[in-house]
Structures are given as structure tokens and as C-alpha cells.
Design a protein that fits this description.
The complex is a heterodimer of chains A (about 270) and B (about 325). By secondary structure, chain A is an all-alpha fold. Chain A has ten helices and no strands. The relative contact order of chain A is 0.15. The two termini of chain B are about 15 Å apart. The chains are: A mainly alpha (about 270), B mainly alpha (about 325). At the A-B interface, helix 4, helix 8, helix 9 and helix 10 of A face helix 1, helix 6, helix 7, helix 8 and helix 10 of B.
Amino acid sequence: MKRRGVQKLLLPGGVVAAILLIAIAAPLLPLPDPIRQDVARRLAGPMPGSWLGRDEFGRDVLSRLVWGARTSLSVAFISALFAGLVGITLGLIGGWARSWGAFLTVRSVEIIMCFPPVLLALLVVTLLGPGAATLILVLSVLYVPGFARVTYAEVLAVKGRDYVEATRALGATQSHLLFRTVLPNIAGPLLVQFSLAVAAAVVIESGLSFLGLGVVPPAPSWGLMIRGARSTMEQAPLLLLWPCAVLTLTILAMNLLCDAMRDVLDPRTSER
Amino acid sequence: MSASWLGRRLILTLAMAWVVATIVFLALHMVPGDPAELLLSTSGAMPDPATVQELREKLGLDQPLMVQYGHFLAGLARGDLGTSLVDDYPVIQEIALRLPRTLELILAGTLIAVVVGVPAGVYAAVHRGGVFDRVASWITALLLAVPVFVVGTLLVLLLAQTLRLMPAGGFVPFAQDPGQHLKLLALPAVAIAKGLAAVLFRMTRAATLDALAHDYVRTARAKGLSPRRTLVVHVLRNALNPVVTVLGLQMGTLLGGTVLVEYVFNWPGLSTPLLRAVEGRDYPMVVGIILTISVLFLLINLLVELLHAAIDPRVQHG
């Protein structure tokens, strides 16, 4: 059972790793500048040195796809990281302190869940203006409750276990108990939560960029590429299909990776 | 359904609406700096001080925070959401005009998702491991991965631009031309339905499998009940509960999705003025529309809970 689970990790894990690697290595790859316009060659088809052709401003499509991955993934990872730091801290405090502590930490951030995510994002964009920094702030805020909830539930489940009691009896300090004993033992579900947050963040980032309210042009982003290609979809449908395909493949691989990770790391929820 | 349970739910929903309104109100004041200056500053240029002062007075930002909050809540109670900063048009009138169209889209999308997702899930569970089950599971994974605006855009590309079977988007009032109205509704509704249909399929399949494994199903079969009757009376009734829960959980995503889908198909719901307002920093309009959709979200969740209680009386005592 476990072994099959690990095998299921391989394919989506490989795809995600490849996308990550390409995104990280983007500056080292022999690609044209993703922002440089060349109006003479707008909507040009594939040619040597520009394998996927040029977009409506004559920019290299392949290069924009690769650099777009960098934009999307860095925004998603940084937001998930911030959300994780805040959410896990709140969850730990809430789970450790019970009652009032839980109310102040976990329950209060759940208010965020009263809003449909995209709408909360639009509210913040109105106030701060579009851009990568706004996106990171919004996405971090959106995923804090998820981390807080999972951490809270896991801490409650773990804190009565014998090994925690034993460590406490050995005279460990509170912080040692929390960070050295409890945290490593609930790391699995938190890692699953992290990957879920990254995947969800990629979706919302691309959606907001598509509306013209996320990443600011001319920076490359998959959502922006789809937005731009809409006006020329009759002449150049491929221009639209490439970013759609890459975005969908990325999210698909991430979703499958999340499922496989949950099966391996979080056995309780996988017994369906 | 007991009255006290219903009352508690209603009060809770009202309290949550109040919290949502308060957060939206405070959001403008949580941003560092002068709110009026913030709303007027586009692309980093300093706005004209006289204009800032004018806006400050118009939004009542020169008054103490608590007074502003009082005015805001009193306005909400009267159904007054202020006027647009761009054209002084009352926000509530814009919402009243466009909310029905957004609701229609949401309703149509939910309907399609339920009609497709639930039966498909039951069928896949009953014929577990079969061809349909496997194919449907893959399609579900794909549907969950494609962002809603990508589905919308691809539907336009395929059905409107290439095959010319459907209109690319737009809106005709139902009273004017019912056929064309429904034709224009079809694609955006399908686009919105895709994610929900996939989630409903998964949940229905899992819940049906779960229910099928129970002893009471074996008992029902053993006493000679037909497979169809066993399925409908014993399995589905028990499987429906988690499905309804998921329906409620997914509504937030669906409501966010309508913003994108309305944009893709030029459906004149709440999305158009919302996006215009976000771009133009028309704060009262943004607040009005976001509050409307968030309260709608709360109401849908209340409705889901009522549905839940109707299906399973134990819910009220849990």
C-alpha cells in the first residue's frame, strides 16, 4: 500500500520538479529577452531561435512561457511560505493553549473564509494597486486559515500522546516540546497543506493576472499571456493554447502530487 | 426543523454578515497613509490637495472613525451603499440591476453541475473500476486542474470562433428573445459548472461507495429489495449528506469564478462594474459589490445548512 503510494508520487513529482527546475534556471537558459518587443515580427510563426513564434507585440512566446513559470511559481511559493509561517504559528499557539487561545488565533482567522477568495483579493487590489507584492500579500492572507486549522487539529491530536508526555516528564521546556517534539510529528499534513496552498495560489494568481489585476505588464505571466492572446485568437489560436496548456499541466501535476503526498504522508485521510 | 435551531442559524449568519461588513469597512483604514490620497493616487503621481480634500469630505473621512462606522452601518440598514466616485450613480441601483443576472448564472451553473456530477458519481460508484469510472476519474482530475477562465476562453475559441456553433458572448434580456437569452447563457453556465461538477462527482462517488459498504445495504438486499430500490432508498439518502456539504464549501470558488466567467463572456452581471471599479479605485462601488457577493455566500451556506437539516434530522442536534 505504502509502496504503491510512493510510486504514484513519481510521475507528478517529476513533472513538478521539471517545471520548478526550468523556472529556477530561466536566466541561464539561452532564451531571448521575454519583454523585448519586435513589432515587425508580431504574431510570427515558429522559426529558429524562437521555436513557438512571437506574440502580439513580437515577443518570444517560449521565453515568456518559461519566465511566466518563474513569476507564477515564485509568487505562489512565497505566499504559501508566509501563510505557512503565520498559520502554523497561530495553530501551534491555539492548539497548545486551548479555549481562549484557540478562539483568538484559529477562530479569528477563519473570518477570512467568510469571503469568496477572488473577491477578497479584488478588495486588496483596489486598495494597494495591482502587482506581485499585492498578490503575495493577498494570497498569504487567504491561506493562513487553512494552515492554522490543520496545525490546530494536528496539535490537539498529538499533544496527549505518550511521547509528548515522556518528553515533558524529562523536563523539556515548552518551546522544546512545541518545536522539537510536536512540530516534526505533524510535519506530514503541514507539507500537504503547503502543496495545496501553492497549487491554489497558482490558480488565483493566473486568474487575477488574466483580469489585468495581478502581475503588471510587461512582466511575463501565464494569465497575462492568455489575456493578451484573446484579442488575436482568430489569427493565432496557438498563442492562446500554449499558456493554457502549460498552466493546466502545472496545476494538474501539482494536484496529483498533492493527492499522492496525502496518501503517503497523511495516512488517516487516505483510507477512503 | 426546530425553531430554536433555525433561529440560532439565522443569528449566526447575521453576525457573520456584520463581521464581513466591518472588515470591509476597516480595510480602507488599515492601509497606511491617508485613505483619500490612496484612492486618488494612480501610478505614483501625487494627487491635487483640493481633490483629496473633496473626496475626504465626500466619503466622510474627515470624521472620527467611530462616527464613520456608525454612518456606514446605518447606511447598510437602509440599503444605502453610497454613490460611485466616478459618476455619482447610487451603488445599490447598479447592484439591483445586475445582481439578478449574476444569480441566474450561478443558479444555471449549479444546476448543470448537480445534474451532471451527481448521477455520474453514483454510476461510477456502482460500476466501480469499470471503464466509465476510470475515464470519468481522469476527466475529473483534468477539470479540476483547468482554471475556470481557461475553460471559458477555450470554449469561445472552439465553439464560437472555430466551429461557429455558439455566440462568443453577450446578453439579451429573456423577455426580448428567450431562445437567444438561453443560448448566450449556455457557455458561461457550463464554464462555471465545470469545477463544481468535478467536485460533486468525486464526493458523490466516494459517499456512495461508503454507503454501499454498510450493513444496512446488505440487509436491504438480503430481504429481497431490488437493486434500484436499495440504491435509491438506502444508499443515496445516506450518501447525499456529504455531497450537500461539499456543495456549500465550493460556493466560494464558484462565486469567485463568476467574476472571471462574466468577464470572458461579456455577461453583464456584477463582474463588469466590479472590475471597472477596482481599476478606477471606485471604493464605494467595490465595497458594495463585494459585500453583496459575500452576503450572498453566507446566505447560500445558510441554505445549504437548511438543506442538510432537511435531509438528515440529526444535524440539528449535533
